[in-house]
Design brief:
With 337 residues, this protein is mainly beta. It has 2 domains: 1-34, no CATH class; 35-335, YVTN repeat-like/Quinoprotein amine dehydrogenase (Methylamine Dehydrogenase, Chain H), CATH 2.130.10.10. Helix content is 0%, strand content 54%. A hairpin with a 5-residue loop joins strand 6 (70-75) and strand 7 (81-86). A 4-stranded antiparallel β-sheet has the order 3-30-29-28, with no helix packed on it. Strands 4-5-6-7 form a 4-stranded antiparallel β-sheet, with no helix packed on it. It has strands at residues 11-15, 18-22, 37-44, 52-56, 61-65, 70-75, 81-86, 94-99, 105-110, 119-126, 131-140, 143-148, 154-159, 163-168, 174-179, 184-189, 195-200, 204-209, 215-220, 226-231, 237-242, 247-251, 257-261, 268-273, 280-284, 288-293, 298-304, 309-314, 320-325, 329-335.
Length: 337
């Protein structure tokens, strides 16, 4: 319990497969806490698992990459497959993917290459042309994660050489390099591009000032590898997931933990805030996608699946939630107003 505040629990209704949340009894919220997620469609990739999953563009599009190193792009609204982009010279080596906010570019990161095992590239893919156009960066060791800023001007990567790098996009020029205390499995940049976050294999979450290049603070998740980090749209909170099965929410200004969200059995592999910051979605090795209210810590809904969840993503308009699974399946839920 947080101090002496009494937290009322909202009621749950199931209506024709949709999930509907009503406001807590006895509380006049003005606007009811109401979200309806309906499974819109299931997409299938020819390989497994889903290594990267991201939305991009205003419509929006949904991009995914699996073990075959081919990037597929769908229209989220219709489920139509728009592109299959065959990547060259990446033999089972693509480790991550980021989709630019304007939907024009996809960036992929390597875990290794055929010619030099300890060299990994960050590659720019033109969506309209359906092909790779150039190398943005080349690093030693694997590229673990990639993430765009909200305006698409900055790209952040985490690398197995303990470096977190910020690149100007689309030039690829490196503007910052941060040293992480352990190997960073994941990284994200705040929507205003002022703060960079990274989660390490030792359970530490680092926060840096992108403009001044200095460390802001270190957050401790008390052991377990950090598998994913994400910011709210205002940058005031950051969420993390870890291999111990926890989702945690932090205040980025103070570094104080705001909530610990237990419930997954085994590692949580992905976490993402909804664009309005009202919900957190997480995906775990237990095969479930869980939807949380970060204000109360309530597990609002658990969406079952048939395989471990490797990736979760919200579209920028908040209408769609996608999950990528270990068997190459992608589930796409739509929010009904």
């Amino acid at each position: 319990m947080r101090g002496s505040t009494l937290v009322a629990i909202p009621y749950l209704l199931l209506l024709g497969g949709a999930v509907s949340y009503l406001p807590a009894q006895g509380v006049n919220t003005g606007e009811p806490l109401n979200i309806q997620l309906v499974l819109e469609r299931t997409l299938k990739t020819p390989s497994q698992p889903i290594r990267g999953l991201a939305f991009g563009g205003e419509r929006p599009g949904l991009a995914a990459v699996g073990e075959d190193d081919n990037v597929q792009v769908w229209d989220a609204a219709t489920g139509d497959l728009l592109k299959t982009i065959i990547l060259a010279d990446h033999p089972k080596s693509v480790s991550c993917l980021a989709f630019s906010p304007d939907g024009k570019s996809i960036v992929i990161g390597e875990s290794f290459t055929k010619t030099a095992i300890f060299t990994a590239r960050v590659e720019l893919v033109d969506v309209a042309a359906g092909q790779e156009v150039r190398t943005l960066a080349t690093h030693h060791w694997e590229v673990e994660s990639l993430s765009f800023s909200a305006d698409g001007k900055w790209l952040v990567s985490s690398n197995w050489d303990r470096k977190v790098r910020v690149l100007d996009f689309p030039s690829g020029n490196q503007v910052r390099e941060f040293e992480s205390p352990a190997k960073p499995r994941c990284a994200a940049i705040s929507p205003d591009a002022k703060v960079v976050a990274a989660g390490d294999t030792d359970g530490t979450i680092m926060l840096w000032d992108r403009e001044e290049g200095k460390e802001l603070r270190r957050l401790s998740a008390e052991g377990g590898e950090i598998t994913s980090v994400c910011f709210t749209s205002d940058g005031r909170r950051v969420a993390s997931s870890d291999t111990r099965g926890y989702v945690r929410v932090w205040d980025t200004l103070t570094g104080k933990p705001l909530d610990t969200l237990p419930g997954h059995v085994g590692a949580v592999l992905g976490v993402v805030f909804s664009p309005d910051g009202k919900f957190v979605a997480s995906g775990g090795a237990d095969g479930t996608v869980r939807l949380w209210d970060p204000a109360t810590g309530q597990n609002l809904e658990t969406l079952g699946a048939h395989s471990s969840v490797w990736q979760v993503a919200f579209s920028s308009d908040g209408k769609y939630l996608a999950a990528g699974y270990g068997d190459g399946t992608i589930n796409l839920w739509k929010k009904r107003e």
